[in-house]
Each structure stands twice: as structure tokens, then as C-alpha cells.
Amino acid sequence: MVPQADGASQGRYRKPRAWVTIAVMLNRRYLCSFDARRILHRFTDVVVVGAGAAGLRAACEIAASAAASVTVITKGAIRDANTDRAQGGVAAVLMPERTGDSTELHVEDTLASGCGLADEEVVRITIEEGVERVRELIDWGAKFDRKDGDIHFTQEGGHRKPRIAHARGDATGHEILSVLAARVQAMPSIQVIEDAYVLDAITEDGRCTGLLTWRSHAGLVAIWARAVVLASGGYGRLYRENTNGPHATGDGAAMAYRAGAELKDLEFVQFHPTTLYIAGAERFLITEAARGEGGVLKDAAGVRFMPSYHPMAELAPRDVVARAILDRMNRTNQPMVFLDLTGIGREKLAASFPGILAICRRFDIDPVREPIPVRPGAHYTIGGVAADCWGRTTVPGLYACGEVAVTGLHGANRLGSNSLLEGLVFGRRAGRRALEDIAGLSEASRPPVLTIETGFRRRDLDILDMRRSLESLMAREAGIVRAGKPLADARRLLARWSDCVAEVEFGDPQGWELQNMLLVAQLIAESALWRRESRGAHYRDDFPDQDPAFAASLRLSRACGSRPAGASA
What we know:
Elements: E1 4-5, E2 20-22, E3 37-49, H1 53-64, E4 70-73, E5 90-91, H2 96-99, H3 103-113, H4 120-139, E6 146-147, E7 150-151, E8 153-154, E9 164-165, H5 172-185, E10 190-193, E11 197-204, E12 207-215, E13 219-230, H6 251-258, E14 263-264, E15 269-276, H7 289-292, E16 296-298, H8 318-332, E17 337-340, H9 346-352, H10 354-362, E18 372-381, E19 384-386, E20 398-400, E21 405-406, H11 419-438, E22 450-451, H12 463-477, H13 484-501, H14 509-530, E23 554-557, E24 561-564
Parallel strand pairs: 3-4, 3-13, 4-10, 13-20, 19-21
Antiparallel strand pairs: 1-22, 2-3, 5-9, 6-7, 8-9, 11-12, 12-13, 14-19, 14-23, 15-18, 16-17, 17-18, 23-24
Helix pairs in contact: 1-5, 1-11, 3-4, 4-11, 6-14, 12-13, 12-14, 13-14
């Protein structure tokens, strides 16, 4: 159940408020271990959840009008988003006359990657507006790598032309995030609240009116806003092997679902073929650009194997490469394969992939002389909160952009290097639309009253053990290759675990994250069971072919359950 605001009007709040003491009863949906206590009330025009490329771009757009105050909420530090980990680059047709490229070719490549589920209107919006967004970043100070004075473009799998711009070799995400963070921090109408956990959206009469948050030093904080923009990222941490930062636990999707928003396409989880595999160490992404520059995949016996799986070999679509690696690992009874970059040369590696070199050397691997042990890992989650081309969700007042949102750009499979572009384009669009929509809302005349329902009991629970069990289950039964019976078994087990957690009282983000992860995991299993075909990033070995009967998205909501797109509610 979502916290409800009793009789509060929407509006703009300018005066700071003191602590307000109200009776708080506890919500089964997120189960916080706080009895009646003081809750700090904060007021803003728009609150943005997440500080990656999409969230910061949305905040910049709203604040630029000087007509609204903006609060950015982030689970960690402002520069700690998944955007910072993006190595591959940003795809944009910036110099068509030099590369022989066109926005039309980029549109065609994106639609082909989407396997029939991409929305052509959204694809065109993203690719056409994306050119302006990247040029805007350059005007704001972003420095992309250049050759002979011009931006140097590389080509990746699925792209027919070199259109990928990089910064500092393999630090594109870091460069983009740094530029956006500096801009946000220079805008006085934006307040950034770091190390804050969002428990749930607050709704009133079906409209999103704010958030209930928690901070370690302040406890519960209710943030009241005329619009909420979700840019909280994906749910890659549901999988044991993944390239995501620690915050990608599906909180935004779970929160939106509880608030009544529709989710869709949750079964489409993109696994990156090459993550550094060192037993006991954190998994690090080895960018696809390394294969684009000549890196080859070999098995434990030193045999190059990708040409036998696909005519494009190492540059085949990511899902094809990931399944090929998994098959090779099974055939050789090894937990990894090897990415051989020795043919690229020391000078080129140092110039193009300084981050990869630094990571490898931390583990005493020299890619100039020896291959890198790799295996697939969950990388980008295509599914999430259903949003239109302006970021509007099915809940008034709630917007979504970036990886948490499903606009239709990616369809069933994301084309590499389109995600940063999407964050920039739809961050701006969601921010602009939220600003326009709140313009006609009247100011509130009194502070809201928050009531949260209760009903739970205490129980000992090893959160870390259950989380590891969840991650292993998802990797095994809802991972790269799936089948009906294991998915059905996983769904039943996840439901049982959720019932157990529903009786537990939590007092910090670890427990709330687990609850969100279990909810999203169940919805993934349900979606993957429904899609009795193989399409894009979703592969069923009991239904290995694409089926026209499933050329639609499964929509899930609390009110309507699950239904294919276009079906009546």
C-alpha cells in the first residue's frame, strides 16, 4: 500500500518548515521499524529521483526556467550513478558528411536491434534530438576524443557506420556525468540530497504528490512536490553476475508499481558478453569497443569460436555473443572464456582503453601480453516503468526517464551506446513536460497529513543470505537462457520468499532493497513466462523462434494485473 496524503492540495512551497510531529503507522509494503515519531517535511516544486545522466539533465531543464525549485534525491553521492561506469560511448550522427552516416541509418539500425518492438516515433525523436543534446554537452564543456581536430568516432556491433563518440577512451559516462553534475551544482534553484533512500511515492486521489524518504541521520523525511521525476536506474543487481553499481536494485520500478503505474518489458534484460571474471572480485565491464578495435574471443584451449556462431563474429549482437560464450563455457566446462586484445598493440590500448588497462593491472593482468578472463553479466535492463514520449507514466504527476523508463526506444534489445543518448533526450523531455504540467496547479494552503497503514511482526532474517539466494536464482532461471518450468518454479519460490519478508520489520535500506528486488524479480519471472518465444534479449530454449503472436509488450500493474499492450484493462 502506498502512503496516502489526506486532503492535501497541490502547490508550491517557498517557506522552510520546522519538524512536524505526527503519528506514523507502518506500511506492509516497505515495513519500516519506526513507531510514532517526528517526520521532517520538505517542500519543492519538482523532485527528481536519481543523479545519473537522465536525472541531472531533467533537473537542469527544470531549473533553467527559473520558475520552479528542484530537489534531486540520490541513494549515494551525486557522481556515483551507473552513468559513471559507462565505457562504450554515446551514439550520435554528429558529422554525417565525414562518416557517410545519416540519422535515417541510425534509425534503421535501432529499429533492427529492437526486433519488432521498438516504437519508430520514439526512435526518431531520440536520434534526431540526440544530435542537439550531444552538441549541447560539448557547449557545456564535455571533451570527446578527437583525431586531426575532429571528434573521433568508432563503430560497434549493430551500427553500420562509425558514430560512437568517446571521451578519454573508455570514460565517456564519467565525462558526461561530470559535466552535468557541475552544471547542476552551479544552479542555485537545485538542491541535491545525497545518501537518501526513497521508500515509496505518496499519492492522493490517484496523483503522485511526493515521496517518503529516509536518511540515516534524520530518519523519515516526507518530500512534497507538484511533480516527481523518476530517473533511478535499472535492476541489474538482481543478478549475481552484473556490471552495475550497488544502487541498481529496481527501487524505482517497485515504487512506481506500488503507486499504480504500469510496468512493461521486464523480461528484456541485456547481458553484456564481456565482464572481467576474477573469482571473489567485483565484476568490471570490458567495453564492446574493445572487440570493435580488434579484440577476439577464445575458449580455454585458445580457440577462437565466435565465427562458428555468427557471420559477424565478435561484432554480432550482444545477446548472440552472450549466448555463444555461455554455450562455450558449458562445452569446455569452464567458468569463463578469454578476450584477447594482444593484437591491438600497447599504444592503441593505452590511448583507447586506459580504464580497462588500469582495472586489469589491479589483478596482475597485462592485456598487452595475455588475454583477459571474461564471462557475461547483466548490464542493462530494458524493462521498467511505461512512459510516453514526454516521460509521462500512467500515474498523473509521476514521470520517468533513463533506464527506469520504457519509452519504446530499445524494443526487445538495446542497440549499444544508445542509452546515454536516451538519458539526455528524455531527461530533458521529462523535465520540460513536468514543468509545463505543474504551471496550472494551485498552491497548497496547508501542509499535508501523512497516514501510513501498519500490520507486521518481528522475525529474524539473514538479509544478505536471502539476497545472494535471489541473485543466484535469477541468474540460473531467468538469465541468458530460460525455459518454462524453471521460470514457473522460480516464480513460486520468489512468492514464498516475499511472503516471508512481508512479515519482517526493517529499519534501513538493506531490507527495503530486498523487498523491492523480490517484487521486481517476481514480475520478471511472470513476464518471461508469458513471452513464449525468443526475441531480442529474451531467449527461451523451449521456444527458440520468434513468434508474431508476441509482437507486443506485456503490461503489468497492481490494478489490472498483467495484459498485453492493446488489450482492454
